[in-house]
Task: structure prediction
Amino acid sequence: AGAGVFVLSNHYKPGMDPAAPVAPASIVSHDLDGDGKLDLIVANELENQLSVLLGDGTGTFASEARPLANGQPISLVVGDFNGDNKPDLAAAAWDGDAVQVLLNTRPRRCDEGFDTASNAELGPAPQAIAGGDFNGDGKPDLAVIDSSEISFRVLLGTGNGSYRPSTPIPIPAGGGDHFVAADFNTDGKLDIATPNVEGATLFTGSGTGTFGAPAPAIGGFYPSSLAAGDFNGDDKLDLVTTVEGGTISIFLFSGSAFGAPSHTYVGNNPVSVAVADFNRDGRRDIVFVDLVNVRVMFGDGTGAFEAPIDLPHSGSEPRYVMTTDFNGDGFADLAVANRDSADVTLFFGKGDRTFEPAVSYPVGPEPRWLAADDLTGDGKLDLLVGFSSGRFAKLLPGNGALKSFGAPSAWDFAATPVAVTAADFDGDGDKDLAAVVASAAPRLTTLPGNGDGTFPVLTTYPTGEMPHQVCAADFDRDGALDLAASLLVEGEVSVLPGVGDGTLAATAVSTAVTSPGAAVHADLDADGVLDLAVASGATGKLLVMLGTSTGGFALPVSYTFPGTNPAPSAVKAADFNRDGALDLVVANGGANNVCFFYGNGLGAFAVPPIGE
Result:
């Protein structure tokens, strides 16, 4: 009711392929069909397809479509990868060892689908994908994390929907399965933050698609999720991580590194976290899910937070949470993927600490991740849903001010996409998708969008084993979006430079990182180059990797979580204490808390005492 509280509403259940079970693993939103209403793209892991849900602006969605792809899609991203002003798709396929790019080159019709443009071969287990201009060339690139290789890659886009080959960047003390790409050090260059077994790791972007040595943020074990936001009001992105066991940790960024995390015990294994200003007081708040509850913690602008407030909902086993303004009213909303109840719950915020009654949409078994963007080209945010297994992702098209989503449509990745990001990789003005796919042939996949919610044939790029997360940003500052992926097995973060036409470079820039997982990218040291903070669930550390001027990252700096049994699983960056430096907040499930690492604005972070 306008005070940070959400109320349950409706459920949506897309049509299912009787020959294969629905297993939504990832979701992103975008206006695909250009009607000004948000649509959704969902990765259906077991069905090897994507679901596209075109929104009508009222919260309902049109019927689904399922373009074929290779591997089981597990993560998605939207972007204009070939520069034709149409949203394309990129998907990571768990069993396809590549990121598949689906270029949206057909007429603006929702039933046309996407054409496969290229496949970026990756490691055996791509887990997450994100888009961004990592080399500053104005062309969208892709970043992919690989959970098998324990690394990430950045695929530099060519601007035509293809990407240059990449090499994995190891993530020291890696772990977890996602990351964040952002400009943590405010140098104008995208950085990448990944989780690790000791906290998170920051890879500072050079602006050329390469990254500096990874800088770890120590303080907490095995983060399961991470997000970025300015939690202390210093205009620097910080990280928040969730750690299985019930802890949320915040790492404040000093401008060059993340500080020691402050921890908040929240119970019940927090597994996913997101950052927004829910009550419009100019201070960063956080929301997290802990397998039972959806909880909001309001920040005071100094890096401290009120006790968690539970949001009423009917979903069972919430696994992933994201926040954005779905209906365009200026207030932050929430979307939650509920594994056991096989649905996605929407909470529309009122900007005064209350929320409207929750609305739920059935999407199929075991939804795993969510993403939002205008994939249909109607100016309204859509919601993309991915699943724990299967080959498909599903799109729920958004209806904007009507606070509803249309019927879902699916895309087939032929492998499980473990992470997806959306961006305009080919420079055509339409959002495309990039996903990391974990399979026997791990890869990064890009899907160029048509701007109407459909995507043509995908393109794949090889990655290292077990890619876990992907993000898109211009790491090398060449004006083209690059892709960064974390690779668990290889233990590296790999950046594939984009060339600006939707394709990626043949050679990736990789940085060694142990067990890279959840990550966030931002300019953590304010040098104009994007850095990375990575949560490593396997090592229980936070790794910080400062970006280099060439688009790579420095070796990660490791931050250990105070206490026992750290298991960071999610990380976000924001200025929580408003000191102008980005901080980090980490979900620390192993210790049942969230940890805050306060940054100094130079890429270093303070590790708080236990209980802070």
Remarks:
- Confidence is low (pLDDT under 50) at residues 1-21, 108-112.
